[in-house]
Amino acid sequence: RHGDFLKTFLQRYQSEFGFTLSDRTIMVDDIRVRGIGQSLVKIEESIEKASGPPPVDTITSVYFDNVGYCDSPVYLMSSLRAGHQITGPAVVMDELSTILVEPDCTATVTTSGDLLIHVGSGQRRVVGTHLDAIQLSIFSHRFMSIAEQMGRVLQRTAISTNIKERLDFSCALFGPDGGLVSNAPHIPVHLGAMQETVQYQMKMLRDNFHEGDVILSNHPKAGGSHLPDLTVITPVFYKGIEKPVFFVASRGHHADIGGITPGSMPPHSKSLREEGATFKSFFLVKGGKFCEQEVTEALMAPALVPGSSGTRNLKENISDLKAQIAANQKGINLVRELIDVYGLDVVQAYMGHIQQNAELAVRDMLRDIGTATPSHQLSAVEYLDDGSPIQLTVDIDVNTGSAVCDFSGTGPEVWGNCNAPRAITMSALIYCLRCMIGRD
C-alpha cells in the first residue's frame, strides 16, 4: 500500500543493522509493481468435525537444533478431522508430503481439511529458576544457537575474503558481568580472549552504556589478540532496565588496518604503532548513529607514523564493521525473544546454571587427572625460535578440583612481536581445558 516508504526503509534498516546513516541519500534501485485481482469464488467442501482427540499412528524420535531429540507423535492426515489440534513436536504424514510441527508450535485442522500452523505460542513459558537438567540442556542449546545465528549473519553480510570465505571470525554471548555464557564453534583464540575485552569495557565505561551504543576494541591491554582482530561489542537492554542484561560481541580478522606492511602483521615490528590502528574503547555507534567519520579518521591515523600507512582498504573495513554490528543486532533480537518467552529472571538464572555446570565439568576433570598423578603436579617446557622458554607448571588440588597454572621460568618479554598478552594466555588455557573435558 501507498505509504511513507523512506520511513519504512529506515525502520527496517535500524532493525537489521542496529543503526542508521543519517547523512546518506537513499537510492531507489528497483521498483516492482504488483497487481491484485479477485478470482472466481470456489466453494470448498467441509470435512467431518472431530469427535475426539487426534489419533496417534506411532511415536518417533525427532532431532531439533535448539532442543535435541524429542519423542514426537506421528499423525496420518487421512485420520484427522476438522477442529483437531496438534501440539508440537509432532509429525503429520500425507500421501505426498510430510509436515513437521516444531516445538512451541501448534497445528489446527480447518473445516476445508487444510493444516493451519501457528508458529510459537507467543506466551511466556512457566519455567522455574531452579536447576532442571532438561531445561539446562535446552537453554545451553538456545544460547549456542544465538551465537551461531550471529555468525551466519556476519558471514552473509561481510564482503571480505577473511570473514566471508576463510571464516576468520567469532561470535559469543556474555552475561551482565561480562562472563562468557555461550559461543559458537568459531576461532578458539578469539573466544577465550573476548571475555577479557567485554570486561575491560565494563571497567572503563562503568555505567556509561546506553541503548544504541556499540563499542570497538582491538588493543592488547583491552583483551585484544593481534590488532587486525577487531572486536565489536553491543550491550543488550531490555524493557526499561537501566543496565545491560547481557552483552553480545563479534570479533573478525580485517585484512588491513594500516601499519608498516600490508596485512598489518609485520614480522619485525617493535611497537604497536607499526602494526596499525588501535582502539581501546571506541564508540563505533553512538545513540544509534554510525560514527563513520570518526572511525575513518582512526583507521587512517597510522599514516602519521613515519614509514607507516593508514588502512589500505577502508571501504572493506567499514563494510565488515557494519556486518559485525548487524551480527550483534541479530544476537540482541534473539536474546530479547528468549526473555519474552521465559522471563529475564529465568534466562539469567540458567545463564548462571550453565556457567556453574561448566565449572563443575572442569573441576571433575582436574580431580580425575590429579588422582591419576601421584604428585598432583604436571609440568612442561617449550622454546621459541630465539630460545626463549615457555614453562608451565600445573598444581592440582584434588579436594576442590582447582588448579594453579604457574608460568614461572618462562622467558622475559622479547624485543619484538612474539609476546602473548594476558588475554591470549587465558584463551589458550581455556581452550586446552575445554578440549580435555571432551564433552558438553
TrEMBL record:
<feature type="domain" description="Hydantoinase B/oxoprolinase">
    <location>
        <begin position="132"/>
        <end position="440"/>
    </location>
</feature>
<dbReference type="Pfam" id="PF02538">
    <property type="entry name" value="Hydantoinase_B"/>
</dbReference>
<dbReference type="GO" id="GO:0017168">
    <property type="term" value="F:5-oxoprolinase (ATP-hydrolyzing) activity"/>
</dbReference>
<dbReference type="Pfam" id="PF19278">
    <property type="entry name" value="Hydant_A_C"/>
</dbReference>
<dbReference type="GO" id="GO:0006749">
    <property type="term" value="P:glutathione metabolic process"/>
</dbReference>
<dbReference type="GO" id="GO:0005829">
    <property type="term" value="C:cytosol"/>
</dbReference>
<dbReference type="InterPro" id="IPR045079">
    <property type="entry name" value="Oxoprolinase-like"/>
</dbReference>
<protein>
    <submittedName>
        <fullName>Uncharacterized protein</fullName>
    </submittedName>
</protein>
<dbReference type="InterPro" id="IPR003692">
    <property type="entry name" value="Hydantoinase_B"/>
</dbReference>
<dbReference type="InterPro" id="IPR049517">
    <property type="entry name" value="ACX-like_C"/>
</dbReference>
<feature type="domain" description="Acetophenone carboxylase-like C-terminal">
    <location>
        <begin position="61"/>
        <end position="108"/>
    </location>
</feature>
